[in-house]
């Protein structure tokens, strides 16, 4: 949005109007060093084998291989790669007391045709080494699973892909209900933010 060639507005003024830091305009990303790239390859290969390794265990693993690395460096590299240890977190379904509680809008609604109401939910599947996450989109009337995806990380991408696949194959439902966000909304106005 910043145009450095604009004669009437300086970069300082453009940043002020857009509420941006001027340092962000001039920032140029620095590529990773060869040493970091080598460590990232090792971390990636080991993470495929042991997705439950966090930064602490990954640091121990790299040290056993002879690399002198600190936990902060490993944590930073794993964050750059988007890797997080996959494990069951305790009491994940307990709502925060300050979060808004939405009313259940489908109570008493007669569901009498396909594509009237869809639902979606996420669960985890225990594996020998860690977990996989499963998201499914289902039609309430037919009880048919319209789309599903598996992922080894709990991110939004695989959920969005499953919903987009269902929308492409079956069109938009009148109502899309999901427990995971406690919201009921018309699928025509669902705004997928990431």
Please, could you describe this protein's structure?
The chain is α+β, with helices and mostly antiparallel strands. It folds into three domains: 1-29, no CATH class; 31-85; 117-189, 2-Layer Sandwich (Nucleotidyltransferase, domain 5), CATH 3.30.420. Helices cover 33% and strands 18% of the residues. The protein contains six helices and five strands, in the order H-H-H-H-H-E-E-E-H-E-E. The protein has helices at residues 11-18, 22-26, 34-49, 55-64, 71-81, 157-170, and strands spanning 117-127, 130-139, 145-151, 175-178, 183-185. Strands 3-2-1-4-5 form a five-stranded mixed sheet. A hairpin with a 2-residue loop joins strand 1 and strand 2. Helix 4 crosses helix 5 (71-81). It is flat. Residues 181-194 have low confidence and may be disordered.
What characteristics describe this protein?
five-stranded mixed sheet; 194 residues; 18% strand; Nucleotidyltransferase, domain 5; 3 domains
Question: Quick gist of this model?
Answer:
With 194 residues, the chain is an alpha+beta fold.
What shape does the CA trace take? flat
Largest sheet: 5 strands, mixed
What is the name of the CATH topology of the largest domain? Nucleotidyltransferase, domain 5
Count the strands? 5
Number of domains: 3
Query: What Rg do the Cα atoms give?
Result: 23 Å
The spatial strand order of the largest sheet comes to 3-2-1-4-5
Cα separation of the termini: 21 Å
Q: Number of helix segments?
A: 6
The CATH class assignment of the largest domain is: Alpha Beta
């Amino acid at each position: 949005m910043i145009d450095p060639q604009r004669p009437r507005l300086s970069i300082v003024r453009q940043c002020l109007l857009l509420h941006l830091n001027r340092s962000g305009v001039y920032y140029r990303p620095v590529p990773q060093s060869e040493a970091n790239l080598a460590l990232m390859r090792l971390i990636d290969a080991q993470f495929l084998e042991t997705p439950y390794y966090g930064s602490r265990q990954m640091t121990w693993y790299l040290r056993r291989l002879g690399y002198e690395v600190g936990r902060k460096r490993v944590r930073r590299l794993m964050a750059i790669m988007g890797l997080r240890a996959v494990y069951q977190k305790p009491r994940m379904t307990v709502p925060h007391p300050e979060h808004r509680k939405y009313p259940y809008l489908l109570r008493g609604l007669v569901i009498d045709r396909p594509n009237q109401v869809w639902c979606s939910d996420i669960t985890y599947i225990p594996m020998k080494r860690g977990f996989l996450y499963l998201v499914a989109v289902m039609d309430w009337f037919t009880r048919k699973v319209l789309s599903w995806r598996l992922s080894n990380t709990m991110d939004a991408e695989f959920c969005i892909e499953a919903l987009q696949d269902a929308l492409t194959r079956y069109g938009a439902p009148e109502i899309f209900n999901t427990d995971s966000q406690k919201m009921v909304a018309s699928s025509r106005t669902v705004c997928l933010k990431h």
